[in-house]
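Note to self: keep these together.
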Amino acid sequence: MPSSRPAGTDFCRPFLKWAGGKYRLLPRILEALPAGTRLVEPFVGSGAVWLNAPHPHILAADVNPDLVALYRVVEGEGEAFLARCRPLFTPETNTPEAFYALRARFNAASEPGERAALLLYLNRHAYNGLVRYNAAGAYNVPFGRYRAPYFPERELRSFALRARKAEFAASDFRETFRRLRPGDVVYADPPYAPLSATADFTAYAGCSFTWADQVDLARLAREAARAGIPVLISNHDTDAVRELYAGARLARFAVSRSISCRGADRRPVGELLALFEE
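Structure:
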């Protein structure tokens, strides 16, 4: 039975910009998402789904420890975190010189609160809001040159309120699946499979999320479904993905998405939701 949401309820927006974020697809996802005691997200990203899901408990996991640490700080510090971040959103900090100085400060920082505040700054000021690291583990996204980056004060407060029902974990998706228990339902939003055989694989916390990883995720979804835990997965709608998800209930649709670094270069791209359940 799908989860439900009161009619006319506004969706809670994530406070992070996020490539591949699911905010615009929430009606489709929430309609397809089964009910359960706990929603588990192995690839939580911006958190758009769990922030709006009705499940009473949440396990929000991601392989990126900086992302998970940021969420823990927002939940733990509340208004103090907003006060820490507000001075980072001024005209003086929206220059290339300030950006690269603060980026270097983030890469050198170790204190969780400082690192979390700087990650929020970088996410809102960097090119396309990307969170990306080089081989040495340093954040390396360039300055975005936005006129007035938005300080997500309202979204941070909403997140902190909803985070009371959530547990955050820095873990690989395989480890997250090992933590499943009766009553759970899983929503998995992995780095998408390539649209063609010649396309690049999507980066997963600085590493390639390979086809072998896609196969492993599908295997884990089938195993969880056999144990009575339904799993809903988002991915590109391709022949290879449909074959990989054979036996699952598939819902296919088109979304408009940028297909290059030029934001105006958009076209419909096929996506699917695959529900594995007994």
